[in-house]
């Protein structure tokens, strides 16, 4: 049998094994692992790791952001940036606007994504208005159609749900088999601190961090887990920034709860100090929860190493810094309350975790693959089609050079933002070639794929939800 494509001579790493073999690809699918395979096209992977394509299960693309603020990425630039960062699948959010239906939201986001993507994409829903019809009909129908996860917020005035609403939404997750993700920060406590900061005239970017201290995240994390326990449903705690919130997850697991933890590059590479700086430079690091301290980096690393965190996502949420419609919008230039929350990071996620983790000896390559690909596929209903290198899986493959070094410069990235919060960071280990369903998309750092090569993926129920038998 001749294959369409053979990837020869590399070191394959999955979440479980590291081994030398060639990969044979036919019709976009891995059909053989062996030695001496021959294909119409052969890529030499000598000296490279051969990894399943990165899956980033937490990205924001082209979300309406209010106040005339425009997110910096379309599906074209967001997925292109993700692709160059070694990703073959992204899971952006499809946000229900208050007073509107889930159908309206899905129609709008599909229209934005259709024909524009360089990676495969699938949507999580954001439930902002859990009406009777949303809970009774729309959400169950959406789950049946392959939108098998959704996020709820405990903060942000226009998105937050109260505890009663969260219980109702979680109960719908229990009935339908959907997986609930929760953004954990106590909005009332934040409001209280914001009022106090404003009264004191403290309007600079750093106030974003000091109005969202660790305690407001820890409390909300505890509460979200408690609500999930009351309903008896699995839950994902997204973008955990610190050890105290992480310990809430550890305690819940110790009593037998099904809790998934997610953390992000900003919580191992940025600190509150990045929100200081001249001329509102600190606005570049405004995200929620805010970056903490170097001592918290160590706590987060412990969670990455011991498995408290199953998934390492970017929370890519790009705005332009020096732009009327971005971070320094007319109001955002004077008052931290108007600086949009979120930072770009879909292209730098894998290099930062590899460099800080694998190259520096904190984690091994199998853990890297689990954290950046396999566990995302398992958690969000894409496994084993996505997230591994095995016969029958989609040929989503990255050739990774563990020795390549670079200094992160926004000028070399592909997103629509105008800065990187990691500017100047030196990283060792980079994706060189990226293959999507057997099609070479990036070859030795050059784009060869096309806009529209990425497809929409309906998803199965999460493996965290499925019961055996
Ligand atoms: O600041 C952030 N993280 N913005 C994105 C929205 C969210 O809460 O994930
Ligand atoms: Zn969030
Ligand atoms: Zn987010
Ligand atoms: Zn950019």
TrEMBL record:
InterPro entries: Amidohydro-rel, Hydantoinase/dihydroPyrase, Metal-dep_hydrolase_composite, Metal_Hydrolase, Metallo-dep_Hydrolases_sf. GO terms for molecular function: hydrolase activity, acting on carbon-nitrogen (but not peptide) bonds, in cyclic amides; metal ion binding. One of its GO terms (cellular component) is cytosol. Carbamylation allows a single lysine to coordinate two divalent metal cations. Its cofactor is Zn(2+). Keywords: Hydrolase, Metal-binding. Residues 49-440 form the Amidohydrolase-related domain. The modification N6-carboxylysine is found at residue 151. The keyword Hydrolase applies. The keyword Metal-binding applies. Belongs to the metallo-dependent hydrolases superfamily. Hydantoinase/dihydropyrimidinase family. NCBIfam families: D-hydantoinase, PRK13404.1. This is Dihydropyrimidinase. It comes from Acuticoccus sediminis.
């Amino acid at each position: 049998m001749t294959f369409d494509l053979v990837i020869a001579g590399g070191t394959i790493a999955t979440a479980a094994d590291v081994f030398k073999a060639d990969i044979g690809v036919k019709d976009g699918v891995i059909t053989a692992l062996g030695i001496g395979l021959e294909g119409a096209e052969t890529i030499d992977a000598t000296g490279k790791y051969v990894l399943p394509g990165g899956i980033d299960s937490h990205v924001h693309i082209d979300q309406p952001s209010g106040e005339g603020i425009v997110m910096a990425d379309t599906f074209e630039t967001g997925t292109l940036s993700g692709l160059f960062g070694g990703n073959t699948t992204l899971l952006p959010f499809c946000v229900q606007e208050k007073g509107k239906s889930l159908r309206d939201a899905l129609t709008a986001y599909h229209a934005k994504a259709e024909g524009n993507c360089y990676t495969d994409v699938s949507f999580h829903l954001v439930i902002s208005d859990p009406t009777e019809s949303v809970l009774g009909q729309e959400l169950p129908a959406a789950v049946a159609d392959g939108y098998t996860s959704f996020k709820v917020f405990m903060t942000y005035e226009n998105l937050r749900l109260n505890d009663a609403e969260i219980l109702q939404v979680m109960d719908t997750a229990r009935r339908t088999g959907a997986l609930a993700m929760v953004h954990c920060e106590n909005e009332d406590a934040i409001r209280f601190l914001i009022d106090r900061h404003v009264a004191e005239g403290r309007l600079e970017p750093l106030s974003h961090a000091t109005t969202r201290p660790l305690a407001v995240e820890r409390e909300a994390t505890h509460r979200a887990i408690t609500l999930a326990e009351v309903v008896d449903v699995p839950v994902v705690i997204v973008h955990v920034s610190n050890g105290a919130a992480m310990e809430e997850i550890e305690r819940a697991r110790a009593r037998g709860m099904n809790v998934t933890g997610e953390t992000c590059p900003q919580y191992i590479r940025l600190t509150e100090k990045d929100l200081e700086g001249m001329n509102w430079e600190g606005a570049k690091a405004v995200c929620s929860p805010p970056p903490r301290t170097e001592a918290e980096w160590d706590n987060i690393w412990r969670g990455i190493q011991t498995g408290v965190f199953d998934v390492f996502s970017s929370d890519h949420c790009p705005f332009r810094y020096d732009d009327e419609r971005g971070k320094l919008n007319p109001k955002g230039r004077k008052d931290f309350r108007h600086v949009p929350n979120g930072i770009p990071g879909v292209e730098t996620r894998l290099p930062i975790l590899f460099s800080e983790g694998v190259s520096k000896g904190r984690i091994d390559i199998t853990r890297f693959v689990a954290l950046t690909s396999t566990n995302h596929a398992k958690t969000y209903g894409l496994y084993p089609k996505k997230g591994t290198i095995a016969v029958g899986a989609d040929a989503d493959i990255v050739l990774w050079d563990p020795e390549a070094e670079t200094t992160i410069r926004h000028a070399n990235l592909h997103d629509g933002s105008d800065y990187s919060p990691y500017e100047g960071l030196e990283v060792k280990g980079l994706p060189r070639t990226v293959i999507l369903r057997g099609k070479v998309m990036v070859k030795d750092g050059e784009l060869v794929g096309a806009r529209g090569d990425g497809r929409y993926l309906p998803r199965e129920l999460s493996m965290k939800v499925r019961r055996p038998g």
